[in-house]
Amino acid sequence: MLPFLLPLLSILTMAELGLPASPALQPGGSQCIEDDCYAVFWSPEQFTGANLVCQQFGGHLMTVRSSVAADVISLLAQGGSEISLPASRLWIGLELEQNCSHEQKGKWKHSGRGALCGHQCVVVSEDSASGSVELVWEEHSCDLVTEGFLCEYNYFGSCKPLNLEPSIGVNVTYSTPFGGKGADFQALPLNSHALVVPLGLDLVCKKVEDTPRWSKESLGPWDCRVENGGCSQICSQDNGNPECLCSQGTLSKADLRSCLTEGDLCNPGRCDQYCQLSSEAPGGYTCMCDSGYYLGEDGHSCIDVDDCALDPNPCPQKCVNTLGAFKCECNPGFELLDSECVELLDPCFGIQCQHKCLPLEGGAYRCICKEGFMPIPDQPDRCMSFCNTSECPAICNPYNPDDCQCPDGYILDEDQMCSDIDDCAADECRGGECINLPGSFQCICPPPYTLSRTGQECILIEIVSGDEGSGTIPSTEATGPTTSSPVAGPIHSVVLIGIAVSILSIITVLLATICHLRKKKYSAQATLDYKCAGPTKEEVL
Q1: Which top CATH class is 3-194?
Q2: Model pTM score
Q3: Domain boundaries along the sequence of the chain
Q4: Residues 6+ apart with CB under 8 A from 495
Q5: What is d(CA 321, CA 337) in angstroms, rounded to the nearest whole number?
Q6: What is the pLDDT of residues 470-527, one digit of tens each?
């Protein structure tokens, strides 16, 4: 058993001072080791009820994870109970699986009631059969009502007991957040109180700059014989009043107990924005703020100036305050120019674009179409479906997915896609070559054929007389795509060559005759000679 735990026996008779609301729920004894505290409650409870009592102050039934915890159980279980020790059983936080006949070793002792089956819980009790008192563990039904139970509380930080000078000759009474009270503790968790009645001193364990320390709400030190008066360096009480002194080159903090060095004066977080060392200012430094802020009454914080609340208002129409600054905005129909709001002339005002009007610089505008559409060439303010690939998304009604449209020459496919129709697969060009294009097709005719006006049939070239009597031969290639074509049969190449030679011979004779007649009638007009024998005609022939 650890020697430093022997003083526990003196705390087991304490009463009247605990935090529990009911005296029946006050601990019968308690102790803390570093950040873990333990308490015994002498109150008949089943396992579940005992755990609920522990949870009232943020704890749970005690678990045994080290030899120190086992020694604490031994001391707490042997004091403060009027029940004879051999008959005392205390719940701890251990439950056994739902099976029978547990074979345990070490501190385990069989209950002596045969094999137990089902959900079981564990108690600690004393075994004096060997001639010395020893605590053992026993499994029992969780519905058993024991004489008491052991609770455990875990904290994040603790203070050591108060450091008192031997000459002071006073006692200290400690109270903990879980209700434990006494004069002998190895550690005290955060928010514990230390009461020194003769001095009228009530100290609290709290974190000061992230370090657990004994402190009090009021400023300044207390009696220097108790915890050095709370001073971080020197505590002086020569004239009867305690005073904290800082060594040369340091200054006192706001609590009048702590000291800081000049290097700590302007450490990060000291001032909201800027910190400047000053030997004349209180504390040796001065806080300053950026333009657009003013220094708060505490001398450290910087508060934003509401520029929009100034009179006169810095903006012509709307003012929006921001941290350390502001920005001006204009009402709808105005724009900010040189800090003034001028009326905005919208070039798109009154323009009837089918989809959207895009304002341009200089007061110009341009009608633009949504994705999947393009302007109609002769109507730039109107839009038509457009697709320049073999497949593109359909234009669908956002409120009706079944209402979809595809451009001309496309067919609606699955997943709301438009697929190009292969017009050439249906022999749309009769007597010529068909080239499929996105959304359309194009027919090309071989000589001496030309494309008909329908754009879907190749016909023999015909002589077309002009107003001045000169003949022209129509082109043999289509000038643009078409969307439909009839079917034409194949033409033998030898026949085509013969027909072409015959037609060219006839055309040559006709042209010679026409030129001869014209020369005879209009011998004075030299330009007609050029029309009859120009390079263009020669190229055609």
Answers
A1: alpha beta
A2: 0.45
A3: 3-194, 274-304, 309-343, 423-493, 495-540
A4: none
A5: 20
A6: 444 444 444 445 444 333 344 445 556 767 767 876 787 677 666 555 544 443 333 3
